[in-house]
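User: I'm new to structure prediction. If I give you an amino acid sequence, what do you actually give back? Let's try with this one:
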Amino acid sequence: MRHRGFLAFGIGLGTALFCGWIAFPYALYRQTEQPIQFSHKIHTGEKAGLTCEECHALTAEGRLGLPKLDKCAPCHSEPQGKTTAEKLLVDRYVSKGREVPWLVYARQPENVYFSHAPHIKLAQIKCERCHGPHGDTGSLRPFEQSRISTYSRDIHGRSVLPIRRTEWGSMTMDDCSRCHRERGVQESCLTCHK
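Assistant: Good question. You get back a string of structure tokens that encode the predicted 3D arrangement of the chain. For your 194 residues, that looks like this:
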């Protein structure tokens, strides 16, 4: 009799863990493909040799933006290859002068102000520190958006456990505070929350 209780408890615990760690996160996030596929590897590699900053330019407020069409158009007025994505870029966006409606993986909540300028220019932090090895990717992964908060999954990270596997696993306030402490940088609530 006693073994049945342990077995029932084990099955219940296993089911709860499965639901909490696998089923709930799967149901919580809605996946959307980017408007077109893009290879960072081709653009940052030997073929094109671009840097992150050449396409993701700093705005006057110190924020990094997504590439505008005027960055793509000079090289992509004609298809550079035979891929569907290349044809789509030229036909749907470049030839019509329409901006690509990229979905932003790293968009912070509305109550957060983040300027890339002091992090890139003053602290000399590399893009990979927070965003991971995007420069090596051959395609874009689906954008995952929380059905509840509407934030990107990249903000809270892929793991449901509070275990950091990489420096760039998430972009929460705790991650920013940890990095500031490691570098001896003073923080103030009003620096990031305006």
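You can read the tokens as a compact description of the fold. Here is one thing that stands out. The mean pLDDT is 86.
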